[in-house]
């Protein structure tokens, strides 16, 4: 038999003329690469180098690097221990702008992603509950869940995480109020061109405005009384998130809703209707103090990875990249310091 060497793992040509890769202790079976090659490839990815660039450095096609990457991430995910998970936040994100959504679940205590799956419906919560069971955890152990007001998420948590109390995400609640504010601004702008270019002037928290912006805002609120009234209500609502006593929070929220209902500001009245439909989940924030800070940080990492990759068409690649950058997983490949 003649020995033929590839760049990494040797192959042999048999008497029958076929080529067979030699199994060696320094390589994974079926990989075609040495463990050192794979470890260095993963190290480059850890260093935030895009996969396409890694493939150029390693002089192989990108798909082969992806196969190496997916092998090690999948292996690490399978052995992940979820036995201590009690509080989670759940959100969705897309692989490209507006396309191919995945649901992301993060453990609040460990501040890391523990589950990712394709889709954004009720069944994604069932898949999460199944994954908990497979990895030593339990759906019944989940005490608190932070989600947005998606009916699918609400239904899924109620059905598959039966002991969990729901907290509606602060970020999404504030975003809904800001949308109501912007809807009013748009309605006012149809008759008053002075409001053109001032979208973020009326959406920002007053304390975050620069002095010039504050002067402009003061002029706008004086010139347009309805906008001024809405802005004061929006700023007042911010105080809710700092309240520590549940009874005080209930009283504040009831008082705020009553004030809105006494106005003729329809977008805010619509927002109040949404609040009342999700009342317990919003008030539960006072006890759970769950907010979107964890997912915001994770989502920033995901968005950066998406920009570097110019979007992900392969959903396996996308979900595994989320695990890799935000899962704090333990990998088995050899590690070498840079």
What is the level 1 CATH name of the largest domain? Alpha Beta
Characterize the largest beta sheet: strand count, sense, and whether it forms a barrel.
5 strands, mixed
Number of helices: 15
Task: Based on the coordinates given, report the CATH architecture of the largest domain.
Answer: 2-Layer Sandwich
Our Rg estimate from Cα atoms comes to 26 Å
Query: How many structural domains does the protein architecture include?
Result: 3
Structure description:
The protein is of the alpha/beta class and 338 residues long. It has helices at 35-46, 51-58, 62-78, 122-134, 151-160, 170-189, 199-203, 211-223, 225-237, 246-261, 266-277, 279-283, 285-288, 293-309, 315-326, and strands at residues 2-5, 10-13, 19-21, 87-96, 99-107, 112-118, 144-147, 165-168. The two termini are 40 Å apart.
Quick overview:
By secondary structure, this protein is α/β, with parallel strands linked by helices. It has helices at residues 35-46, 51-58, 62-78, 122-134, 151-160, 170-189, 199-203, 211-223, 225-237, 246-261, 266-277, 279-283, 285-288, 293-309, 315-326, and strands at residues 2-5, 10-13, 19-21, 87-96, 99-107, 112-118, 144-147, 165-168.
Descriptive key words:
338 residues, alpha/beta, Nucleotidyltransferase, domain 5, 5-stranded mixed sheet, 15 helices, 52% helix, 13% strand
Topology:
Layout: E1 2-5, E2 10-13, E3 19-21, H1 35-46, H2 51-58, H3 62-78, E4 87-96, E5 99-107, E6 112-118, H4 122-134, E7 144-147, H5 151-160, E8 165-168, H6 170-189, H7 199-203, H8 211-223, H9 225-237, H10 246-261, H11 266-277, H12 279-283, H13 285-288, H14 293-309, H15 315-326
Parallel strand pairs: 4-7, 7-8
Antiparallel strand pairs: 1-2, 2-3, 4-5, 5-6
Helix pairs in contact: 1-2, 2-3, 3-15, 4-5, 6-9, 6-11, 8-9, 9-10, 14-15
